[in-house]
């Protein structure tokens, strides 16, 4: 079978983010380019945060996932333009909310509680369990929840 | 060598070395708070800030190593150089002190970092511009938090105000080094690679004045700034102690990996 860039993207759409496995690397928006250079497949990946420990895991996950389809790839890190939460797809946002993580918003805070959908919210901390998240709490159901920081 | 301006060396290696060393030393310093901060939220915030800074340090030091052309990567530069070869601002190597000292130092660093990165984003060197664009988003987030915390503590209780004012008196003499220039800076600025440090002074000092006024804190008069870290002339005694902890594993087990 002839492997195409589109086929590789389709395979990558099934590769989960190592830290938030409900969304794929494609939905996270970190896959910037897939191309073939002199018979060698290359995938450009944009790191989310400079120090995110998941960055090297992501590269390894991509190599392993494509190796299962018999494709060997070189994974390049690309810094420019820098990754932004705007690149998280609509389906990615919906899956984040269903998982209990409020998706990022330009306004700088969550729109609603991922559990009860109340808009009566308070910020607990600008940082959270991973570099990409902050801690918030719902004043209606009183549950704390994570918010995917807007970057 | 990243170590200092030497004829024939790409000035970008020196710039990236200074940026990387400053981010690395501060990143390591604040990681020392992990598990010890006064509140869980602050603990998490400091650890995450450390992670961002160490990530930025890796980007800068890999660039420094590539441009100096001596076959050293970020790890080689971070773990196998001695204190006299580091080119960080003296401000960031000082011990953490209490939480007030730490957050005030963070705000002074962040306020400067944000403005410097904004200038470096327009660098004619593509790699410098790319790292700066990436780092500036993180720096803006750090600055927002450290600034707000300095204001909350400065304009807080009698105790928190007194401790923040004392912290400011201790840290302020190190601010002048941010705007110090040498031949490398002149070369970088005339080539359009980096803004001349002195040109940042108006915006950075303006941001500090605004923050300190809101925090009801007063910067002391300084007759002579404490400098020498970024030029390599001298470091404080504290850097060597910090490096002995940070570098111990690689020194004891060279090339150790996992
Ligand atoms: Zn709720």
Structural class based on helices, strands and sheet pairing of chain A: alpha/beta
Q: How many domains comprise the coordinates of chain A? A: 2
Count helical runs of chain B.
11
| Count of beta strands of chain A | 7
* N- and C-termini, Cα separation of chain B: 28 Å
User: What do the pLDDT scores of chain A average to?
Assistant: 93
The CATH topology label of the largest domain in chain A is GMP Synthetase, Chain A, domain 3
CATH topology description of chain B: Ferritin
CATH-wise, what's the superfamily of chain B? Ferritin, core subunit, four-helix bundle
Give the SSE order of chain A as H and E letters.
Answer: HHEEHEHEEEE
Oligomer: heterodimer
The CATH architecture term of the largest domain in chain A is 2-Layer Sandwich
Largest interface: A-B, 21 and 28 residues
Q: State the strand order across the main sheet of chain A.
A: 4-7-6-5
Task: Please give the radius of gyration of chain A in angstroms.
Answer: 17 Å
Main beta sheet of chain A:
4 strands, mixed
Assign the structural class of chain B, choosing from mainly alpha, mainly beta, alpha/beta, alpha+beta, or little secondary structure: mainly alpha
CATH architecture of chain B: Up-down Bundle
CATH class of the largest domain in chain A: Alpha Beta
Question: Would you write up a description of this structure?
Answer:
The complex is a heterodimer of chains A (151) and B (258). Chain A has 151 residues and is an alpha/beta fold. Chain A contains four helices and seven strands. The longest helix of chain A has 14 residues. Chain A is elongated. Chain A starts with a helix and ends with a strand. In chain A, 34% of the residues are buried. With 258 residues, chain B is mostly helical. Chain B has one domain: Ferritin. In chain B, 63% of the residues lie in helices and 0% in strands. Chain B has eleven helices and no strands. Chain B is globular. Classes of the chains: A alpha/beta (151), B mainly alpha (258). At the A-B interface, loops of A face helix 2 and helix 6 of B.
